[in-house]
Amino acid sequence: MKRSRVAPLLLLLLALPVAGAPAPPARLELAHPAGGHEVHVSAPAVAMGADGKPIVAWIAGGHANTVFVARPGESSEPARVNPPATSADSLHQAPGLAVGPGGEVYVTWSSTKPKPEGVLFASDLYLSRSLDGGRTFEAPLRVNDDRPISHSFENLALAPDGTVLVAWIDSRDGARQTATYVARVTERGSRLDRVTRLDGGETCVCCRVSVAAGPGDAAAVLWRKVFAGDVRDMVLSRSGDGGRTFGATTAVHADGWKITACPHRGGQVAADARGRLYAVWYTEGTTGRPDVLFATAPDGRRFGATRRVHTATGSVPDHARLAIDAGGRGIVVWEDSTAVRRRILLRFVGEGGRSLGPARALSSAIKAWAPDVAVVPGGFLVAWHEEQFPSTKTIVIHVAAEEGRR
């Protein structure tokens, strides 16, 4: 697919000193073409390419929503992912983004399709592949069955052998039987091997799901389940055979959050090389207090006691993201909001999840939102949007893992 002819992005690389050499860029800014409050973009997704350089994906609104991927420092023009005849469903979330062991760049996105009478939403879920590091994308692969319903709120992960796992929510069995599904895609993202419906009852219809792969053939999916009485808490299902089958659903924690509506707030799961699982999610529990909770499963099965990530009393946490490296070091980032200010905060995860460092601010703008994270050698990439009026910019920074020991 050829690149889209769109207004160029301003790529500004600030080469700030970072301990050790060579090191990833300390800070990168991508300015979106429109200015001020008229910029309509989804949350960003960030990953590191096979060449060690950041890759960023997002959806831009306009006459039709378009999925873009940019490789900072290489070109002023982003690559268009979705074919011209298709449109991304909405800006409600970032596209899925992952890089395979051979340098393949995978992007997922939900595409609007015609709605039959009586159907509120209809879309197909696509997986697009790039074999040149994100510069161009091939015709996408549809990963869902051809049904006139919504397939969205997805996430994807790459198994060590290159298998692509895509998890999403759909309601093919009825509005009150919404479920979580996982597609297993092989042959470098070109062949749909199977689609599996996860056990566990009704899935909260708009709470984003999360999937993590590894080590070996292990995989895990995290989502919000609707329990009796409209209690909506996080659950998890594991696979030990590379995503071919998944076991019984288990509760992550009994928050007891009762809400007769979908809160549009999910969580994220991650794994380290020892098979320990880590989870972070939003809840308001039984008190109505906004919280982001963190928990670990040292045996990869049973989660222990939760810890509050956000402890400030004068602001509201949101959009928590988690990244864990092979050794069990990681970071949690989230959006911290008041009525007039939004900023991005970070806490380091250490000792296989046994410790959480103090909160520190990453952003300095008055309005910063929608963070994402990725593991890179020696540390992590963090991306978010912020308003530098009259521009809206996507910020990408490198955070060294060693900073968590200071």
Describe the 3D structure.
With 406 residues, this protein is mostly beta strands. Helix content is 0%, strand content 46%. A 5-stranded antiparallel β-sheet has the order 1-2-30-29-28, with no helix packed on it. Strands 23, 24, 25, 26 and 27 form a 5-stranded antiparallel β-sheet that branches. The protein is globular, with a radius of gyration of 20 Å. The termini are far apart.
Tally the beta strands.
Answer: 30
Average pLDDT works out at: 89
Helical segment count:
0
Question: Helical percent range?
Answer: under 10%
Radius of gyration: 20 Å
Shape: globular
Q: Can you tell me the residue ranges where pLDDT is under 50 for at least 5 consecutive residues?
A: 1-22
| Element order: H for helix, E for strand | EEEEEEEEEEEEEEEEEEEEEEEEEEEEEE
- Give me the secondary-structure category: mainly beta
For the largest sheet, list the strands in their spatial order.
1-2-30-29-28
How would you describe this structure in keywords?
406 residues; mainly beta; 30 strands; 0% helix; globular
